[in-house]
Structures are given as structure tokens and as C-alpha cells.
Amino acid sequence: MIKIRDLKKRYKMGDQELWALDGVSLEIAGGEFVAIMGASGSGKSTLMNVLGCLDSPTSGDYELEDAAISGCKDVELARIRNRSIGFVFQSFNLLPRMTAVENVELPLLYSQVRAPERRQRALAALGEVGLAERVHHRPNQLSGGQQQRVAIARSIINRPRLLLADEPTGALDSKTSEEIMELFLKLNAEGMTVVLVTHEPDIATYAGRVIRLRDGRILSDERKKSR
Amino acid sequence: MIKIRDLKKRYKMGDQELWALDGVSLEIAGGEFVAIMGASGSGKSTLMNVLGCLDSPTSGDYELEDAAISGCKDVELARIRNRSIGFVFQSFNLLPRMTAVENVELPLLYSQVRAPERRQRALAALGEVGLAERVHHRPNQLSGGQQQRVAIARSIINRPRLLLADEPTGALDSKTSEEIMELFLKLNAEGMTVVLVTHEPDIATYAGRVIRLRDGRILSDERKKSR
Ligand SMILES: Nc1ncnc2c1ncn2[C@@H]1O[C@H](COP(=O)(O)OP(=O)(O)OP(=O)(O)O)[C@@H](O)[C@H]1O
Ligand SMILES: Nc1ncnc2c1ncn2[C@@H]1O[C@H](COP(=O)(O)OP(=O)(O)OP(=O)(O)O)[C@@H](O)[C@H]1O
Ligand SMILES: [Mg+2]
Ligand SMILES: [Mg+2]
Fold first, then answer.
1. Residue from the list A13, A146, A199 with its beta carbon closest to the beta carbon of B172
2. What is the dihedral of CA A25, A28, A34, A37, to 10 degrees?
3. Tens-place pLDDT, residues B13-23
4. How far is CA A222 from CA A32, A184, A195, A203, B47, in A?
5. I want to staple A94 with a disulfide (CB 3.0 to 4.6 A). Which of A139, A169, B100, B146 is the partner?
6. Phi, psi at residue A128, to the nearest 5°?
7. Pocket of ligand 1 (CB under 6 A)
8. Exposed, middle or buried: residue B3 (CB in 10 Å: 0-12, 13-18, 19+)?
């Protein structure tokens, strides 16, 4: 599903260069559940942005479902993103003037789904993350953890083939975190590939494989022993 | 230092009412180190906003250092906030067009400190949170955890008497979290009162007292046994 080879991402600031990704190579098969860990600033969100077709690498190759991403034009990237990828951003990125249910419906606007079905599916997704009673609240009327859960509901409403989640439980208490991880496990069992960034070992244990980054490179890549 | 009695905060949405705080009473003495815990949506950030003079309660009393806050005008509240309180917001709230060091200097603009000393103190605060090499980056050139640390540096630059920190380590890996908690312990030993919201038991153990909220009320309030 995902093949990246020698991926590099350089930021230039004046005459300084920062290699946020410094040669990352890995393959993720369809249906895997992968956790990405590493210190603050090690390149996790940068890697997720490249995987999510939100950012292009400085060099290296990226194939998503056998399609070479590196050569894609913006229009093509947008199409791939909307149809195949669900993304939970580290800073949620909700639209402040729309309610929870309107935010969750957004990915369906690109599809052929009509308004009544969009609304019903968005309400169902909000139910799945425990927010049935907050559907008409706007982001500034929601707690931090509630905003994060709206972002999660939005990311899964299209039942994407690939879910990229950057710290999806960072703002959640342990009980709510477990509910969200059980939801991801269920979607993964139904075929969705899950790649999630986390700092918490308790969250990483839900994954079948843990990749650790350090200074823009892979430090280790370990699969769980099968039971 | 802090006395709140029967604090309530109601939000009205159409004809629905939501009591985010539903009768909270507590006292915190100067120099304490308190952790506030509770499920997502239980009222923690709402309580912090009232303690930080950013929001007024619907009813109930709040005395900060023996001054009755409930009756204050906005100008007076702003003066108290700037001089006595440091605040780390759950969503960081950095100014996007300013660099890290400019963001950290902001609280000193209200004081009599001149520009060269402001710059030197802001650089020192950024050093204390491990960001000496990111001082001229703007927020969108920083990782999530780096943005959080800029917010922390900004909150302590005035050496406020009261530090209110809402999930200050939420975006940080465990090593960086420990460094930040050691910094808070040091400032607390120097006399700063610390009230921090956290979901993580490992972070709460740094505090001498843990207050748990549920549905806008205090569920429990326990002090650590002294050693
Ligand atoms: N402006 C508002 N209008 C309506 N309801 C609000 C508003 N702000 C907050 N709420 C509601 O008040 C409740 C408490 O919110 P608060 O932000 O204090 O929770 P919290 O304990 O900080 O949660 P978290 O751990 O998720 O950050 C939530 O259920 C939220 O939906
Ligand atoms: N636009 C940019 N310009 C310059 N440097 C950048 C930019 N974006 C990110 N960086 C730097 O690249 C590095 C990696 O950032 P990234 O956001 O990928 O880290 P991360 O592993 O997600 O960290 P965290 O755990 O704190 O979220 C950081 O050191 C950051 O300062
Ligand atoms: Mg990140
Ligand atoms: Mg909160």
C-alpha cells in the first residue's frame, strides 16, 4: 500500500538548512496497524504530511497503492487525498465557523452522497466517538478532547483505505482514549490501514508494528510477536 | 492565594443549558503544586479560564490573593492577569506571524523592561525549555511539541506568582515531559504556585495534591502523604 524510498525533506531558513526527514525508507502493506514514535521534533508530523500527500518531499520516492505520488500534480493529489486518505491532524484543523456535524460532513462534499445521507453518516460518525450530544456545537464551544474527537469522526466518515492519525488521543483521558483505539481496531479489522503517531507506549501497544524516528531517520522498526 | 466558593458556569445554546461548572469550591494556598484531572468535557479548561481571569463565572465567588475577582472590571482583570498569572493554554495560542522569541517576549511588553533585557530573558526562557535552536522559527515552522514549549516559555518569563498550565505536556514525548516537569518543580520550589491540568497519572505524581472533576463538580481532592 505504501512504499517510500530514501525520503528527504529539507527546510531552508535563511542560509541554514534543516533536514526534517533525512533518508526514510519503509513499506507498509494494506491492512497493517502501525505506530510511529520518536522525540519531539524527530520528523513524525513531517513524515505524516508527505504520506498524506499534503507536502512534497525534497527528494526520494513515494508510491501509494502502486501509484507514483512524486510526479503528481496538485489536482491529482487532491483527488487521491479526498478519496483514499483520512487524516487526523496534530492540531485538529476544524473550521471554526461550522458546527461539529458540518465539519464531519466536509469530506463527503467531494463525493456523490446527497445531503440527507451526508447528515445521517456524519451523525453516526459523531456517535461512534461519543459526541452525539455535541453535534451542533462549534469548535470554541467544545473541550479540547471533544474537538479532537470531531477531527477523528471527520477522518473516518469516508471509510478511507488509509487512516493517518497524528497523536489522535493526545487530548483524551484514558477511558476515552481506549474507546477511540477500540474504534480504530474495529476499522482496521474491516480492512483500513492505520498509521498513527503517538508518544504514549499504552497507545502504541494497539499497533502490530512500531517504527521509531530520530532526527529524521528510522531508528528501529519492530513487529509484535504474533500471539 | 486562591479561594473559590460555589463557582458555576452555564452555557446556553438555544433553549438548552449546560452547566460546565456546577458548584466548585476549593482553596489553594500560595506555593502549592496542584494537579487537576477528570474526563474529557468534565470542566477542567473552564475552571482554568475562570482562575486565569479570562472568563467570568455565572455565579459564585473567586478571591485571588485576597482580592475579590468577581467584581472586577476588564481593565483591572487584565492588569492582574499580566502581572500575576502565567497561562499555558490547551491549544497553545501562539501568534502565527511572530517568531518563537517574539512570542515569548510578549508578556514583558506590559512591564517596564527594556528591549535588550526582554530579548535576553526570552532567549533564556527558550533555553530552559530546550528550544535555543528554534528561536527565530515561526509557529508553523515548529513541531507540535516545540509550539507547546514556546507557550510554556512565554508563561514563565514574568516569573508569575501563579502558573496555570492546561495539559502542558500533552504534545511532548516522555523525556521532554520530564524536563518540563523538573522545570515546574524548580519554579515551585522558588515560590511559584502551580495548578496544572493533566490526563496522565505520571505527570500528576509531580503534584502534592490531585483534584478530580466530574461533570463540573469536584469528585475528590487528595493530598499526597508527606515523605
Ligand atoms: N462556549 C461554550 N458553549 C457551550 N458549551 C461549551 C462551551 N465551552 C465549553 N462547553 C462545554 O463545556 C464542557 C466542559 O468543557 P471544558 O473545556 O471545560 O472540558 P475539559 O475538562 O477541559 O475537557 P478536555 O479534557 O477534553 O479538554 C464541555 O462539555 C463543552 O462541550
Ligand atoms: N516549515 C518549517 N520550516 C523550518 N523547520 C521546520 C518546518 N516545519 C518543521 N520544521 C522542523 O522540522 C523538525 C521536525 O518537525 P515535525 O513537526 O515533523 O516533528 P514531530 O516529530 O512531529 O514533533 P512533535 O512530537 O513535537 O510533534 C522540527 O525540528 C521542526 O522545528
Ligand atoms: Mg508532530
Ligand atoms: Mg480542556
1. A199
2. 10
3. 888 999 999 99
4. 13, 20, 14, 15, 42
5. A139
6. -60, -25
7. A 134, 137, 140-146, 171; B 11, 13, 18, 20, 38, 40-46, 90
8. middle
pLDDT (average), residues A170-193: 96
Q: CA of B85: how far to CAs of A9, B46, B52, B81, B197, in Å? A: 40, 16, 7, 5, 15
| Amino acid code (one letter) for A210 | V
To probe the interface with B, which of A10, A40, A138, A214 has the most B CB atoms within 10 Å? Answer: A40
* Dihedral sign (CA A200, A198, A145, B5): positive
What distance in angstroms lies between residue A46's CA and the mean position of ligand 2's atoms?
6
pLDDT, residue B226, reads 65
* Cβ contact A23:A43 at 8 Å: no
Q: Determine, for residues A172 and B199 on separate chains, whether the beta-carbon distance falls below 8 Å.
A: yes
Mutate to test the interface with B, among A47, A149, A199 (most CBs of B within 10 A): A199
- Residues A69 and A7: beta-carbon distance below 8 Å: no
**For residue range A58-83, what is the model confidence (pLDDT) as tens digits?**
999 999 988 888 767 777 888 888 88
- Residue indicated by cell numbers 509557529: B139
